[in-house]
Structures are given as C-alpha cells and as structure tokens.
Design goal:
The structure is a single chain. Helices cover 43% and strands 12% of the residues. It is of the alpha/beta class. It folds into 3 domains: 241 residues, Rossmann fold (3-Layer(aba) Sandwich), CATH 3.40.50; 131 residues; 122 residues, no CATH class. The strands form 5 sheets. Strands 4-7-8-1-9 form a 5-stranded parallel β-sheet. It has a 3-stranded antiparallel β-sheet with strand order 12-14-13. Strands 2-3 form a two-stranded antiparallel ribbon. Strand 13 and strand 14 form a beta hairpin. Helix 12 crosses helix 15 and helix 21 crosses helix 22. The chain is elongated. The N and C termini lie far apart (72 Å).
Length: 504
C-alpha cells in the first residue's frame, strides 16, 4: 500500500480492501511457503515437528497455545509471527483501538467518520506496533486485559458512567488487528481466564454493565507449561476448549541441534572469541550436561532444564578460560576440562532438585552432571574402559597410565596453570600422550593436550583413577591407594562425585 495516503477518500480510491488479521497471516504465510522462505529463522530442531504444526494452525486461522517446558523458544516463536503481518496497515488517526478506516468499531472512530466523511485523517501502523505481550501473573486484573470505567475520564468529560466514552480499554481491545500473547497462561487466575471466553468464542468483550459488542479482530497466542507439571495453576477446561490449536514444544533431540542453539544465542564478545579457543568436544560436553540433567533422578523433570543452561554454561566456560589467560598474561589460550569449574554456577542456577535441601545439594548434583557428561562423551573418543578390562590378546590402552599412578605418582592440576605448566604436568604422565596419539593423531597440539586431560577425567568416571578437590585445583591419584589412605572421619576427603555414583 501507498503509505503517503492520508485521508479516507484517498484510501477508498486506492482500492484498499479490509482483511482480518487471521486472513492476513494466512495469505502472507502462503506467499512465504511458495517462495521457500523460512518464517522462523534461527529456530532449530523444530523443522519437522513444531513449525509444521504452527503453520497448519495459521493456515486454519486458529488461536494457538504453545505448550512446553521452560526454555523451549515458545515466546520467541510468538514474536516471530510478526513477520507474517503486512508491513503497514491504515488506521483512523489517533483511534484507541487501531480502527480500520472502512470498518471502525470504536465510538471515537465512528464519531470522527460521521463528522469528516472522506476527509477523515488516517495514519499507517507498522507491523511491529501490532504485537502485544503480557506475562500472566497473579496480580493481573480484568481491567488490565479487558478494560474498566475510568472515573477521571468521566469527570473531565462531564459524562455519566453509562456513557461508552468513559471506558478505559485494556490490552486486548487495544490489540485489535494485532497479535496478542499471554505468557504462562496457567498462572492467570481462573476468574480472569473466564473473562477470555467471549473474546475467543464471540470476538467481543464485556465491561461491567455496558451493552458492548466490539467485533475484535485479534490473533491470540498463549504459552504454557504442561498443566500436570506445575503446581502454580492450570488452564481451565472451558478456556482450553476455546483455543483452537495446542502445539507441543520440546527440547533439542540431539547434541548437534543443541550446539546450534547455544552458539547462536551465547553472548560472547569479539575479544573472547579471539582470545579463547573452544574445542568441539568442550561444546559437546556442555550439551551433554543438559541431556544428563533432563534424565537425572536428582533433577525435577517437571520443572525442565532450560536451553538457557547451556547458553549460560558456554558463556561461563569462555569467561573462566579468559580469566585464567588474563591472570597469566597470555594473549591466546584454549579451554581445559578444569575450566568447567566455571560452568557450575550456570548449572546450579538453572536446575530444580527433586528434594530441595541445603544449597550444597545443587553443587553436588552439578558436579555429578559434569562427571556423567564426561563419561558419556568419553566413549565417543576413547575405547570403553569397561571393555578393556576383558582384553586378553591385546594390551589395555590405559594400563601404562594406571600403572604409573599405581606406583604412587600423583598430579595436581591447578586452575590457573600457565600453558607451560599445564603441558608439563600432562606430558609427565606415562602412557597418556601415547593414548591420544593412537586415537587422534591428526589433532593439533592444543587439542591433544585437552584430550589428555579429558582422558584423565574419563578414567576417574570409570573408576580407574581417583580425583580429589584441592583449594585451587584438582588432584589425580591411584584409586586403590586413595581408598586405603582415606581417613574414616575426615570429611574433607569425602568425594561427593563418588557418593552420587554409589561409591562413597
């Protein structure tokens, strides 16, 4: 449309025809599908599940409820639907309800049309202004969503309360010809949900004693956690019945999809990207932590494990590595397994335990999840230690390293080791470099060092070595000697990781 048009007469002459928002979304989606365009750019893992369901709902001109656990891009999807709106639409200038010039619904717009006719001024509304979002909280009122009598307006205009002009419209009427989103719908009080019945079914509103019938044109999108998974509230059955399409969202189903989402959303500075090398294995470990958390008996599955965990974890991992490099005066460095200590705050802040107790409980579980992630990913890079114990005809690839520790050797890895100190300690461990060279000969030196350290942590997870927390790092030693030397009453030597694996 020609946005230079400024009066109703000019708009009529241009051939403009009103279109409902649901028809508008439908026609624009059809055009994008025919052109092969991706409406939901940057939404990964939903290509064959959620997105087709959303497109079918839009083509059916349905109201939509996106149902899923936290951190599943529900709100982001709703916001992206704005791209399916026309770039500009004409509205009667200054109308409170974004009135269509050819189909006005408000008292103000009808009065203005009666006075000015074809000279009625119009303005143009951008699609970004046609999106309204409200978080459902216990303090939300009917007046917030639908509207109420405004006594100040009544007094200033000297109007009785029975006059329609004293109404102050809420968010839903003001979203006429737009998209209205209510996040976390179950948190909305039941009596407020009842107020949505007529809007969804009859497209009109009821305000106190007024005989109003405003044919509102709104595309409703709701988001919610599954009813059975929350104690905060539920969607009342009559309202659920009036929502046309309920679409189930989900977490990434693979490590690769999870990585795409995390790398896209992580807020890393140019300096961090230049200074810190993050190996693919480290990125996979972060995703594996989330996968382990979603399956953990200690983590409340009903609460979910948000994708924000992996995003925050990657940011923390890079920052932990960056801090070490800055302290050591190193211009460039790479991530170490020991740097994953910086990831723990991102985990403890994003998981809810099945049994909430002391704050230390979340820390123990976080360490356990990192350990399980290492154990799972270890098998992608090295032979299964459980299987190597059965070797008869060929040498155990881990035997040299295990024997070296068995002779009483131990290694202290401090978190702030320089690159030289880090390499020196790793290279001093018998058999460790040979193990990596035999499996990953083409890896560069930095990656080989990372894999050597990773192998140590993996052998701990498979109960072939032991590790103990130091004030500024981690100590690795022989498992048997560690068990024999552990004082019975010394809680400082109690290994929390071993306890959660049933070996404490």
């Amino acid at each position: 449309m020609n946005t230079s048009i400024s009066t109703l007469g000019e708009l009529r002459a241009s051939g403009y025809r009103p279109q409902s928002i649901k028809d508008e979304l439908r026609s624009n989606l059809i055009a994008k599908i025919q052109k092969g365009e991706n409406v939901f750019e940057g939404i990964w893992g939903y290509e064959d599940t959620v997105i087709p369901d959303i497109e079918r709902a839009i083509l059916s001109r349905h109201s939509i409820n996106l149902l899923g656990l936290r951190g599943q891009a529900k709100t982001r999807i709703a916001r992206m639907m704005v791209s399916l709106l026309d770039e500009y639409i004409p509205v009667i200038k200054d109308s409170p309800l974004n009135d269509d010039p050819l189909n006005p619904i408000s008292y103000y717009a009808k009065d203005l049309l009666a006075e000015h006719g074809d000279k009625t001024p119009i303005s143009w509304m951008h699609r970004n202004e046609r999106y309204t979002e409200k978080l459902a909280t216990p303090d939300v009122t009917i007046a917030d969503l639908i509207g109420d009598v405004d006594p100040i307006k009544a007094a200033s205009l000297k109007l009785p309360y029975s006059d329609e002009r004293v109404i102050h419209y809420g968010l839903i009427p003001r979203s006429h010809r737009g998209i209205f989103v209510i996040n976390e719908l179950p948190d909305l009080q039941a009596r407020i949900q009842v107020a949505l019945f007529n809007v969804l079914q009859e497209s009109d509103i009821q305000i106190r004693g007024f005989k109003l019938r405003l044919p509102l044109d709104v595309q409703f999108v709701f988001t919610a956690n599954p009813e059975d998974y929350t104690n905060r509230g539920s969607i009342i059955t009559p309202l659920k019945d009036r929502i046309d399409s309920q679409i189930l969202t989900h977490y990434p189903k693979s490590i690769a999809i999870g990585r795409k989402i995390t790398e896209q959303e992580a807020q890393l500075t140019a300096d961090q990207k230049d200074r810190v090398v993050v190996f693919d294995l480290a990125k996979d470990l972060i995703q594996q932590i989330a996968f382990e958390a979603r399956q953990s008996e200690y983590v409340d599955a009903k609460s979910g494990v948000s994708a924000r965990l992996t995003i925050s974890a990657l940011e923390d991992l890079v920052s932990a590595t960056e801090r070490r490099a800055l302290k050591n005066g190193e211009a460039k460095t790479h991530v170490r397994v020991s740097d994953f200590i910086g990831v723990l705050p991102a985990i403890t802040g994003k998981i809810e335990l099945v049994y909430e107790g002391e704050q230390e409980g979340a820390g123990i579980v976080a360490n356990n999840l990192v350990g399980k992630a290492i154990r799972t990913q270890f098998l992608e890079y090295f032979p299964d230690p459980e299987e190597t114990r059965k070797y008869k005809d060929k040498a155990n690839p881990y035997q040299l390293t295990i024997d070296w520790f068995g002779k009483g050797n131990m290694v202290d890895f401090l978190h702030d080791f320089t690159e030289k100190e880090y390499a020196k300690e790793l290279n001093a461990i018998a058999g460790l470099r040979d193990l990596v060279e035999s499996k990953h000969k083409k890896a560069n030196e930095s990656l080989k060092l990372f894999l050597m350290e990773f192998a140590l942590y993996g052998l701990v997870e498979f109960s072939m070595l032991s590790k103990h927390k130091l004030e500024r790092g981690m100590q690795f030693k022989d498992l048997l000697s560690s068990m024999l030397s552990m004082p019975e009453d010394d809680e400082d030597d109690f290994d929390e990781d071993d306890f959660l694996r049933g070996r404490g």
